[in-house]
Design goal:
205 residues; mainly alpha; two-stranded parallel ribbon
Length: 205
Amino acid sequence: MKDEYGFLISASSIGVSIEELIARDEGAGPFIWVRPENVAGVDEAEMLARNLKARKKLDSNFEDEDIFPEAFVCSYLESCVRHRSAQTRVDVEDVIGACVYIMVRWGSSIPAHGFYGDLDLLSRDNASKTLKIIQSVYQGLSNEVLRQNIRYFVSEHYRVGGVWESSNASRFFGALDFEDLEFASKLNFDEMNSILNSSNGNAGV
């Protein structure tokens, strides 16, 4: 079965309240995978509206997100990856799907700035396939803040385009095909346009 973004749903997932999730993360678990949409007690509409509003401000501080529910959810999911086992299997589809959900449905930039930055589940074997799914998500977005989240995520986790472009430090050099690299170039071009529009006072969401 696939989620709404096209990622395969392979890990068992339970529903849990945000309070219980925080308690598990601060304690000893259990670290059973929970998809973001199954966390009770969070107001998705409120989170999205808050994050979109905050990011429209040119002096917005990303660290402000650390005190919000999405930060606790991200922290717990990172713990699930660290403590995964045969009994609590977590695949790259689960992780990237959760990152995309949080960035798009909640408007959070947390996954875009190093969430699972050293994730070994994202590998040369699945990098191209995963990036193509991310590309389909990006192409379906019109909101510039949400598109920027995806751009930052790809730059951070794939190390293509942007600050990585001149360093030949692509994390998956040789594993990405022409379509992937073309998409990465488009992300870089879109980001430059976004910065230019913002500096001209034409930023919008």
